[in-house]
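[recover] target loaded
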């Protein structure tokens, strides 16, 4: 098997001892110009464009930047079916051992569902998947959760007596995968990041539910992905928001099996007890990244007139590192408090302290933090690039500002601080967003309908 490796760095050194014997590496590609013309293990390192001169069976992207590499090769007109990445490590190395926790593949008369997740980290898409799994278990289904990587959610699943399988290599022909899918009545795949798993599962003839939470990775996917999946049949695709649905339709023009399935959140109330002369607390919640717009939040606070700064505090809650410019602004502005990452279970205490939830995301399918804020009657300020903006009526049950428009965000902050009674009414009105669209009663009804419809279709 003749293979070109795109990536002549540290990752190759980590995996090379486990590369299959039948693999013949004919060349390396790398974007580092200083490596061009050199050799690695007596194999030439070439510029990416030189791949068109080579004969090979496939190209393997051995880098964390594999998504950008895919676009690069696409621009060189390399066939998509000849390119594999870190999601297909079984192509070049021996599969990693499968780790099982809890009782898996038990005999049962219950209806059975295998759930695939790309990770078990406590982040938005994974947290709402945990809620969905808990609902299905309570409704009498037998579940197994399969994840490519371990994480803090594993213990929460196991406490619910939902077995976990850590399977880094998910591919057709994997013995454990065959057993799992044979066992299941329905397969549930979570997030766009597992598009390759959906494609792999097409060969099993089982009913597949694919729940998509994000849109950022759409640009990296094959132009024929959705048409191929829908042509094969057996897969129903659900978007977590109308925004995600629109983005997919914009890219792929038509997706006849594309529906909506909003998530649900368990109800809890963490209402704040107001104190005399207390400052209003605005909080932006989520992992620090450009797409989440913490820089927009910081710059808005910096430009806020002094009169208003004395009436408020501004919290940044989430793991990660801010940019140098934002850190410099924060050093000079003591009203901006960086709280760092806070465990999901401790967030109710945070909602007791804050008044306004701000979402400055440049793109966010359906921010959970805003939904939690609405549940607790907090005022929501959201970018129009977020999925939840669909349910906000500006100035009535929340506020919407144009994506990246710092001036509009400042005006909304001023309006809230100037009109305290009206702002309080808007916060109370935000509860209806949660009750109407994201309550557990609504979610349970919709989720069970999706599963039951899929089971009926699999029987037919």
């Amino acid at each position: 098997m003749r293979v070109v490796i795109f990536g002549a760095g540290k990752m190759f050194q980590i995996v090379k001892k486990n590369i299959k014997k039948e693999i013949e590496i004919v060349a390396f590609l790398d974007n580092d110009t200083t490596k061009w013309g050199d050799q690695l293990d007596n194999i030439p390192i070439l510029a990416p464009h030189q791949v068109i001169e080579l004969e090979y069976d496939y190209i393997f992207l051995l880098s964390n930047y594999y998504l950008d590499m895919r676009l690069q090769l696409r621009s060189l007109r390399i066939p998509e079916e000849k390119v594999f990445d870190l999601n297909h490590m079984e192509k070049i190395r021996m599969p990693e051992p499968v780790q099982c926790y809890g009782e898996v593949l038990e005999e049962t008369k219950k209806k059975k569902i295998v759930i695939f997740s790309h990770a078990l980290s406590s982040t938005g898409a994974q947290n709402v998947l945990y809620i969905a799994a808990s609902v299905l278990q309570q409704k009498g289904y037998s579940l197994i959760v399969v994840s490519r990587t371990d994480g803090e959610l594993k213990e929460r699943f196991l406490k619910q007596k939902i077995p976990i399988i850590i399977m880094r290599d998910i591919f057709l022909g994997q013995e454990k995968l065959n057993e799992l899918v044979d066992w299941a009545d329905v397969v549930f795949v979570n997030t766009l990041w597992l598009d390759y798993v959906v494609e792999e599962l097409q060969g099993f003839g089982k009913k597949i539910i694919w729940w998509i939470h994000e849109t950022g990775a759409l640009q990296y996917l094959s132009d024929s992905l959705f048409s191929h999946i829908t042509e094969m049949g057996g897969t129903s695709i659900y978007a977590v928001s109308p925004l995600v649905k629109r983005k997919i339709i914009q890219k792929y023009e038509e997706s006849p099996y594309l529906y909506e399935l909003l998530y649900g959140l368990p109800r809890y109330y963490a209402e704040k007890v107001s104190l005399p002369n207390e400052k209003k607390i605005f909080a932006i919640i989520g992992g620090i990244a450009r797409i989440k717009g913490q820089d927009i939040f910081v710059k808005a606070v910096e430009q806020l007139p002094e009169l208003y700064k004395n009436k408020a505090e501004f919290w940044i809650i989430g793991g990660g590192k801010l940019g140098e410019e934002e850190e410099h602004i924060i050093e000079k502005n003591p009203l901006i408090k960086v709280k760092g990452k806070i465990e999901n279970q401790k967030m109710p205490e945070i909602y007791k302290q804050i008044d306004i939830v701000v979402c400055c995301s440049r793109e966010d399918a359906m921010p959970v933090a805003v939904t939690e804020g609405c549940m607790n009657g907090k005022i929501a300020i959201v970018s129009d690039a977020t999925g939840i903006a669909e349910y906000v009526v500006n100035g009535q049950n929340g506020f919407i500002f144009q994506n990246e428009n710092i001036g509009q965000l400042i005006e909304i902050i001023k309006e809230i601080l100037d009109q305290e009674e009206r702002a309080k009414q808007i916060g109370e009105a935000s509860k209806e967003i949660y009750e109407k669209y994201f309550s557990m009663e609504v979610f349970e009804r919709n989720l069970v309908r999706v599963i039951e419809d899929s089971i009926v279709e699999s029987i037919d």
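[recover] notes: Residues 157 and 163 are 7 Å apart (CA to CA).
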